[in-house]
Predict the structure.
Amino acid sequence: MTRLPAPIQLGLRENAAQFTLLVAVNALVGGMVGQQQTVLPLLAETEFGLTGYPFIFAYVAAFGVTKAATNYAAGTLADRYGRKPVLVIGWLFAIPIPLLIIWAPAWEWVIAANILLGINQGLTWSTTVMMKIDLVGPRQRGLAMGLNEAAGYGAVAVTSVIAGHLAEQHGLRPAPFLLGLSYAALALLLTTTFVRETRDHVALEAASTPPSPASNRQIFADVTWREPALSSASQAGLVNNLNFGLSWGVFPLLFATGDLDIAQIGILVALYPAVWGAGQLATGWLSDRWGRKPLISGGMLLQAASLAVIALAADPTGWAAGTVLLGLGTAMVYPALLAAVGDVAHPAWRGRAIGIYRVWRDLGYAVGAVLGGLVADAINLTAAVWTAAALSLASGLIVAIRMYETHPRAELRPGHKGSTGT
């Protein structure tokens, strides 16, 4: 007797097995970044003799620009051809990354590896975000994004610590980067064998939603400047990732001024994504109950305060306190931003909206790396941190003034604007 396929349903519980698998896959996505975070700035100075901050941070800028561009492609391709093919292709780009770094005779090889990492992250992380939003439907987007981002950035933190320990025990190459090679191989196996397409879930949600046709040009305009909630999310995402890009390049070098060994620096660096990752388990859920806007605005303001703490500190205790607060502020912002974009975007063009939002958000990596490098070269590392604090303060105020609440439960509240429908 032939077993009929299970009917398509929306919801976290209804799609628990597939959702859990995608959480695991996204943890491996984050691990690909974590293998580099502690080690590469130290590798630049000790093995390649690089001392100019903008040149050292070029690898972060290359990653950020490539990831931003690939996010746009990921959204368009996923809406047109499906989510799973994009996810598989993204993991194929991951295989050469650790090998290029292990064998690199010059820093340009490391930059090339980070270009591939940007493609990998843009295709895989964007697609896992879309697939989880597809599966859960409108009620639990915040929780879904909290679980997704917690897995990804938790893996960044854990892998950063492991990579730092491996570097301390076995040298900066090749041991830390063998982690990335194993992550890529495992993820490719899981994705090709067990992950299922989610376009039927999109069709089910779209069937109960009024049509909202939109061209790529209209969607780009809405997400970039025209639609208040979407464009507010884009600028906040950019500044948020500016802080992450800055931390990637500046923090290891700043902490090294405290005469810490590589393993200790790795722990300090990992505190930020560790709190960020774990905190999202709560903040994503809270955004489904309190709304998106309070967490986004409050989180950006907390990031500004935490960067000020890091800039004022002169010892590991102060730096640890600042990075913990920075992780908490980022945890407040990250799942709420993705959920807000999912709230406003129509299912038919959600992939493209998420892709464009992630273009602007992930350009923050490049802006943070370049700006941090230029300010650090012109003044010092602490001045670069102060610059990020000022930008975070401005971003939080923009959200407080311009953004409206997007959570579906707010639809009946006075003044709720909802989607523009482009």
Q: What stands out?
A: The CA atoms of residues 60 and 383 lie 19 Å apart. The domain at 16-202+218-408 is CATH 1.20.1250.20 (Growth Hormone; Chain: A;). The chain has one domain: 16-202+218-408. Residues 411-422 have pLDDT under 50 and may be disordered.
